[in-house]
Amino acid sequence: MAGPKLQAPKGTFDVLPPEGERRRALARACEEIFAAYGYAYAETPVFEDTEVFARGVGESTDIVQKEMFTFEDKAGRSLTLRPEGTAGICRSYVENGMHKLPQPVKLWYWGPFFRHETPQAGRYRQFNQVGIEALGSDDPSLDAEVILILAELLERAGAQGIRLRLASLGSIDTRRAYLDELRDFLRGREAELSEEVRGRLDTNPLRAFDADHEGTRVVVADAPKLMESLSDEDAEHFEHVRRMLDAAGIAYEIDPSLVRGLDYYTRTVFEFTSDALGAQSGVGGGGRYDGLVEELGGPATPGVGWAAGIERILLAAGEAGEGQSPPQVYVTPGGFALARELRSRGIRVELEQAGRSRKGQLKHADRLGVGWVVLVEEDGLQLKEMANGEQRAVADADEIERALR
Ligand code: HAM
Questions:
Q1: 129 lines ligand 1 (CB under 6 A)
Q2: Confidence category of residue 229, pLDDT binned at 50, 70, 90
Q3: Torsion angle of alpha carbons 250, 251, 256, 257, nearest 10°?
Q4: What span, in angstroms and rounded, lies between the C-alpha atoms of 169 and 398?
Q5: Can you spell out the DSSP letters for 52-80?
Q6: In 126-171, which ranges are continuous DSSP H helix?
Q7: Which helix (H) or strand (E) holds 35?
Q8: What is the pTM assigned to this prediction?
Q9: Confidence band (pLDDT; 50, 70, 90) for 323?
Q10: If DSSP codes are grouped into helix, strand and coil, which group holds residue 157?
Q11: Strand, helix or coil at 184?
């Protein structure tokens, strides 16, 4: 007896053809672009000690407070399915002594991430990110470079309606002084703020900039902006980044209220959005995190990078982008060894494997869109060209390969 039907968990999805091929094409584009800039592929575990994210992403963030899939293993250790990749990469940098390598260490990654969010179009509980991180240098050319790389990738992927927002959060000290100033300002108008923002005034007053609450938005419009209190050094660093982006012809908008959902950022932050997406318009974002490696127990090490949602890139690209190439040749039964020989020459071959009649075989070949059919007859091979129906005897794979060129 058949059992009840099973479903994939809420907020997850299956990747099926032709979507799967579009992903692989995107992965190939990533590999090419990253290699040109000297970024090497890395993998870290899909789960980490919860501490990595609690300390790395920040206790007061939505991600850590509400969105992590956290569980205990059999020894009672608290583990968490990774909600993002930067903290794990930095944990690995420290654990593997990568500060001893020539700096900057440039890495890229691709894989599944998990956040317990309310699912909707473009927002899932298991999603995929591609990301890059450059660790060990605070040179502003790296900030500009990572932004350039994401711009290039989005263009290559055919993502539509792309915009870039940019800001600087200053160094850790500037930020701390600013947070005190902002906290004092918000306290002065506490009654107008949402309960949530009030509850986080001590730990994370920056969250006020993210709020949908009308009263909070009114207050925030008058609040002091971090970009106005940057130190000379930070302002100069940001100026450098801007100049390099200008020279590269990258359009952006300075947005002093740009706050990202993670606590580790310092100095440059940025976000690419797409008008082609609905409410979840963020395609990719990132920035500098000069204190994160130290926070995770390593030596003081600057870093900068970004991550982009694979699903959102593909949504923003609509139907654009490559699908799978159809087979070139269709071979009828009896041609198993011949099909293998043709494939070894780089030809895409489909073999009849469903017991169709000769008529059914030709119909199927037509549906597949192949250019050629090899009919395996008792007295030898016949090559049929689908475009004009012409058919002739051929001796072997050599002759078929020549006909295809
Ligand atoms: P993030 O902005 O939290 O940054 O995530 C990056 C991207 O992941 C988003 O722009 C979005 O495209 C995608 N994404 C996030 N959550 C979901 C979801 N629930 N469903 C589908 N896609 C989603 C980070 O994760 C940082 N680690 C980026 C970074 C790297 N900063 C420095 N280095």
A1: yes
A2: confident
A3: -110
A4: 64
A5: HHHHHT-TTSHIIIII--EEE-TT--EEE
A6: 140-157
A7: helix 19-36
A8: 0.90
A9: low
A10: helix
A11: helix
Amino acid at 94: V
Within 8 A by CB and 6+ apart from 186, the residues are 193, 197, 201, 205, 208, 219, 223
* Residue 143 beta carbon below 6 angstroms from any ligand 1 atom: no
At 50, list the tokens: 């919860």
The residue whose two tokens read 């930070």 is 234
Other CB atoms within 10 A of residue 383 CB = 18
318: exposed, middle or buried (Cβ count in 10 Å: 0-12, 13-18, 19+): exposed
| Residue of minimum CA distance from atom 1 in ligand 1 | 285
Distance CA 368, CA 161 (A): 34
User: How far is residue 202's CA from residue 184's CA, in Å, rounded to a whole number?
Assistant: 10
Whether 88 shows a pLDDT value over 90: the answer reads yes
6-28 mean pLDDT: 95
Nearest-CA residue for ligand 1 atom 25 is 84
| pLDDT of 132 over the 90 cut | yes
* Average of per-residue pLDDT values in the chain: 94
Question: pLDDT tens for residues 35-64?
Answer: 999 999 999 999 999 999 999 999 988 999
Q: Does the CB atom of residue 105 touch ligand 1 within 6 A?
A: no
